[in-house]
Amino acid sequence: MTDTNNTKPEDRHLKIEGLLPVTAVGIESLKEANPEVMSPHRKIYKWFARRPTAATRLAILASVLPDTVSDDQLLRWMCVGPKEGTEGTIEDYVVNKQATKDNNNQSVTSHFGYDYPLQNIPPDNEFQEFHEKVRENWDGSLPTVLDPTAGGGTIPLESLRYGLPTFSNELNPVAWLLNKVVLNYAPSQGSLDEDIRQWVDEILDFASGELEEYFPRRDGVAPSHYFRAYSIDCPACGDILPLTNRWWFNRRLNMAVRPLFEENDLRYECVNTEQTDIDFDPNNGTVSGGDAECPHCGVVTERDDLVEMFQSGDYEYEVLAVRYEEKISGSKYHSPTEQDYKAIEKARQKVENELNLATLLSSERFEGHWDRAYPYGVTQWRDVYSPRQLLSHAKLLEGFKEVEGEIREEYNPERAESILVLLSLVNTKLIERNSRLEPIDVTYGSPANMLGNNNFSFQWSFGESNLTTGTYSLSTAADNVLDNYENVVQFLSHVDGENVTVNQGDAASLPLDSESVDVAVMDPPYGDNVIYSEVADAFYVWLKEYLGDTFPQTFSGSATNKEDEAVENPSMVAEGAEETARERYENKMSDIFSEVYRVLDSSGALTVYFTDKEASAWDSLTMGLINAGFTVTATHTITSEMPQRVGVQGSASADSTLLLTCRKPSSDEEIHNRQPTLWSDIREKTRLAARDKATELLDSDLNLTKTDTIISAFGPTLRVFTENYPVVDKHDEVVRPQRALEEARTAVVEVLVDRELEDSLDDVDNLSTWYILSWLVYGRETIPYDDARQLGLGVGVNVDEIKSETKIWSKSGDKLTLKGQSYRVRDYTALEAGEKRRKRAYPVDPHEDTFAYTIDAVHASLNVLNTKGSDFTWNWVNDRGFADQPQFRRIVKSLLQVLPESHEDYKSLVNLVSGETGELIDINTNSFNRDNQNEEQSRTTLNDF
Length: 945
Known about the structure:
seven-stranded mixed sheet
C-alpha cells in the first residue's frame, strides 16, 4: 500500500480527471473487433462481455498517472501511434489513418504504421519511464490496482502487464478459474504446451478407442458432424412427424435433407438442391412459431402440446444427415446409413444401462427467467445432451481421470495443478459445439455455439460432433486453448508472478484491509444484461467433475452461486416482481461499491465502466455509488464510431463506453455535513451539462448515432447530480439519478431537433412529437422499449396508456416497434366497398373529418393517396383544411427527414408532397439534409466484446 498519510485526495491529481485522447482509443477498440487480433486471453475459454484492451489500458493508465502527462505521452505508453514522430498529435494521426484506411489495399497494421497495441507493451526504457512517472505520483511506490468484479480478466491482465501490483476478485468459479490460468499460471509456470500435448494425446487415444464403434466409418473415413432433430407421433393421425424448422444442412453448398415417408417409416435423403430436380423447399420445415404441422394429415400440433410431449419424453431422436471431413463419392454430406442408426441406438443403451453413465450430471438445472430449454424437459444437466453426446463427453472425462494420477506423480504440485486445469479447459470447451442446445450453422454445415446468445435456447435441430476427429475435436480444442495460453505467456514473460492475487469470492466482502488499495478499475455487471451464473453453470457442472478434488471448496456446490451474484435476476424473486429484482441488484451493487470504498485509500480513485443502454440500469449503478459515499469527479466517452465514416447502423444499442471516475470525500465529516439540494436548483444545471456535451460531440469529427450522443451526455449529468447529492424535491422526497438522466435525454433531444429538423415541433401534439422523436433518435422501427418509454415521458406521453387506443406501436420482449399507416389506418377503398373491418384493429378511419392526433391525419392521408390516387387526395386534404394547418405540414416535413428511405411510408410521403398535392401542402423537399438518415448499415460496436 502507498503511504499517503500526508496526502489529501484533492492533492493527487490524476490524468483521468482531465482531458483524454478518447477518439484515438475508440478507434483502437474498434480495430480489436477482428477475432484474429483480439487478446488471446479472450479466446482461451468462453466468457462474456470482455472489454477491448485499448479502452482498458486507458482506464488503468489514466487512473494511476498524474494529470501533467500529455495525451501523446499517454498514447505512446499505450503503444498507440508510430515509433517515428508525427505531424501534429498522435490522436490526429490515428484519426486521419482511420478516415483514409479504405482508400488503399494495405493491411491494417501497414496502413496505421504500427502493430495492434494489445500485442505490445512499451520497450524497456519507456516502461521504466512509465514506472518512474507513476511512482512520482504515488509517493515513491507503484499503486495497487483492484478489480472486484474481474469477469474474464481483461482489467487485471493489463494492470499486471504494466507491472502494477494487482488484485483480481471474481465470484463465479468459472471466471475465477480463467483468471487463475491467465494471471497465475502464465507468469509463474510459463510454457506448458509440450507437457500438456502429450497428455492430450493419451486422452485422445483412450477416447478414440472407446468411441470408435459409435461413429462408424464410411469407406474408411470417420464422420465429423451429424445433423440431428426430433420426431413425434402425430396426435391426430399417428404417423411419424419429424420436427425441424428447416431442412438445410449447408446452404452455401446447396446441401439439404429431404424426409422420405414409406409406410410409417421415416428416412432422410441428403440432396444437392441445385443438382436434384425435386419439388422440395428446404426453407419450409415442419415447425413454425413453435407449432408443428404434420406432413401427412396437415393437422397442426400447437406449441403447448409439443412442450408437454417433450416434458413426458414422448419424442425420438432423429439423425438427418452426416458430414465427413473428406469427400466420399464426390461429397462430404451423406444420408445416414443403417450402421449410423445402429451405432446411435447402441450409444443410447450404453448410457442407460451403465450406472456411472446413467447417473452422470443428474443434478437439477436452475430454471432461469430467459431459459428457453427447461420447458422442453431439459431439467437436468444430462438432458442438455443426446445419449451419444453425453457418452462422448463422459469418455473424455474418463480419459482425464486415467492420466490425472500420473500427472500428480510426475510434476510438483503447482505445475501439476496448472496442467490439470488446462486439460480440463480443453475437454470442457467442446460442450459449446456438442449439445442439444447448439444449433447447426446452416451456412457452413457445422455446429454453432450453444451460448451464442448468452442464454439457453431449445433447438429443433442441432449438431452432434465426433469429438475424436474433425473441426470440433479434442485436437482442435487443444490447439485453440494452448496456442492462446502460450500467447498470454509471452504477454507476461516480463512479469513477476508474485505481483498478483487472484481471489474467488463475493465482491461485497473482500479479504483486504481498509485503505489497502490505491486504484480500483471495474467493469460491473449491468442489470439483466447477462445472467452470468446461469450460463456459466453449463461449464461449472463439468469442471466440478474434473476439478472437484483439486479445488474442493470452489466446486463444492451443485451449481454456481446465484444468491450473491450482482445481477438483476427475475428468477431470484417472486414471479412478476421486476421492481424487486431491480432493487435487489441495486442493493448488491451498493454493497460492492461500499466495500470498494472501504478498501480504497483516501487519495485513490475508482474508475467504473458504464455501457448499458437502459437508464434504469444507470440509475441503479449510480445510486450504488452514491450510497457508498462516492462522488463522480470525471466522465469520459469512448465511442466505437469511426470519424468521418461512410455509413451508420440504425442501431438502438449504446455503442459507447463511459468511464466514470469517482473519489472518496476528503473526510467522513464532509459526507455527514452534506445538506440536501433542491432539485429545482440543479435541474437546469443537469440540462446544461447534457446540452453542452451533446453540442461538443455533434461539433466534433465523429458522426455519432443519436443514442451514442444521449449516452455520452449522461456522464456530465451524473457528475452534477452526485456533486449535489442528496437531492430532494419540493416535497422533501429524495430524487433519484434517473430523474437527472431523463432531463439529460430531453435536453439532448432538444439539441437534435434544433439541428436536424427544419421545423420545430412547437404546438404539435405530444403523441405526434414522440413518434417523430423516436424516428429521429433511433432511425429504425424497432427500438428498446425502456428508452422509448423514457422518451415519451419527456414529452408528456405514457406509451403504455396510448398503445391500445392508437396502435402506433407494438411490443415483443424488451423491444418496441413503431407502426406505419398500413398497420393503423382502416383501408379507405375497403370501407367504400362495404367491407367491415374492426375499428379496434384499425384505429384511424380516413373517412373522418378530424383526428385526435396530427400523426393520425398524416397516416390517413397516405392511405387515401395509396388507395384513391392524387386527385382524390388533393380534395381530401383541402376539404379538411390540412393544407392550412402548420402542424400537419410540420409532421409531413419531419417524417420526410427522419424516416429511412426504405420505409413504405417514406415513398408515400414523397408522392404526397409531389405534383398538385405537393403544391397544395407547399413543402419544399430540396432543403432537406438526409446525410444522417442513411439506410441501416452494419458496424461493430464496443458491445460486441
